[in-house]
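Re: the multi-chain job from yesterday

Posting the exact lines I submitted so nobody has to dig through the queue logs.
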Amino acid sequence: MYIDTHTHMIARTTDDYEAMAAAGVVACIEPAFWLGQPRTSVGSYIDYLSTIVGWERFRAGQFGLRHYCTIGLNSKEANDEELAEAVMDILPRFALKEGVVAIGEIGYDEQTELEDRYFRRQLELAKELSLPVMVHTPHRDKKRGTTRSMDVAEEHGLDPSQVVIDHNNEETVAEVLQRGFWAGFSIYPGTKMGNERMVALVRRYGPERIIVDSACDWGVSDPLAVPKTAELMRRGGIPEAAIRAVTYGNALAAYGQSGQMPETDWLDPPAIDQRTLYMGNSVLRGGQEPRIDAARRRDPDDLTIA
Amino acid sequence: MDPESLLARWLARQLPVEAGNWLLAQRDRLRAGVAERDFNLAVSWVPRRLGRADLLLDAADLAAAEAARPGWDPRGWSLDQAGRVLLLLAGGGGGADFARRLRGLLATADLAETIAFLRGLPLYPDPDLHRMRAREGVRSAMTPFFEAVAHANPYPAEQFDEPAWNQMVLKALFIGSPLAPIQGLDRRANATLARMLCDYAHERWSAGRPVSPELWRCVGPFADEAARRDLAQALRHGDAAEQAAARAALDAAPLRAAS
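And the result, structure tokens for all chains:
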């Protein structure tokens, strides 16, 4: 069983959902982000947030995955002040929806004044609503931006145990762990983290407060990054308990603080969910491991579409 | 007792004291009028405060519901659904104000909220102002939204014009949703719908796919010669359920016009 805490599933296909379910991913979190290009009005932001609390959650349920999300104004679009102000007005309407496990992904991109202003206002919103925070750390000037993100979170009185610092690497991890924050690692080819490096990091730092995610989106990325990395750790001799912690348990502990992501959602879904939203095939009583279907094999000679 | 009072009574009876007090305090606060942000937050807090267990109702409660609002069927409602509808009724105002609030809530609703607000349709003031919301519900690609409007709900039979009604019935078949829970199904049957359903049966036959036996129920009373041939086809080639349905439809068919 795996949880992938960083997935932009609106950019992924039904094949991906099937493959994730078959590989043992039981739950995924969709952080609110930009669309690869800037939005031009708050209306499209409203529809986007509606999609991730509504349609995408429903869609995932049809494949036996539980879908959660985070709500926030991302750092890139924080630089459009008119848009950002309008988005801040509507965020409270979405932050308490079912399945919202954090305010996020928020933080810095270019570390501008406007990014700083809206990061801080959203930290205050998270405090008001008692929600965890998912912090996106910048790709450029990463080390300084990561330190600054933690400084600001502490300045606003957030407990590090409520804050996940995501997209870490070898240069940032030590400080994040030392200061008591959760440390997310996005296994994303080319730019963020590679999974052989990830195995080495878990070997060096141990599993405590480390969370492995895929950050799969519309770019070249891999929705199976979490199960693949788990397998690589297994082959590398990492103990099973440590693998479970960094690919499942820590994610549950961090985002479960929202009260919106209980393990029973996928182990023992309430009847109302089964009736309406969730077509899980992993329904078992008594907290057993859910049945994971063998990966659907595609026969290249089977051309039939009924 | 009106629906709002019934909901409040049922919830107060079932909820732990603290949650019940919170809900009734919110109702009073919303009734008195609050800022839009507070209205939305109060409605959003409902599932976290009340939980999502089934609303427990007995036969007397269902009779009270029917007396308060003919056709209202609160079976299968959950605590959070009832709480959300209660707060909307309490704080929604009336007329265009209510319609605007309902529209705003649905525009930013999560899955469970959407289902709750759609199930509440028969309880809202000025029912004709909410037709678009109901149409959006049955137009949805999400079956639970469709069924929140179409099933166990008197609103569509009362408010939908014939084209809208016919689309809803046909869509139910199309998405594999049963027809039996649609209120007013026999009363709103019509010749156009009968023709649409027979065309749909032909499409299914051509594709080698099964035809729901429920389809024939709305065909019978308006069966023309062509429909009679379709019913005969269902009698010859359908499974037992389809044959029984076709026989019942033929029994309900009008007498042949003398030629």
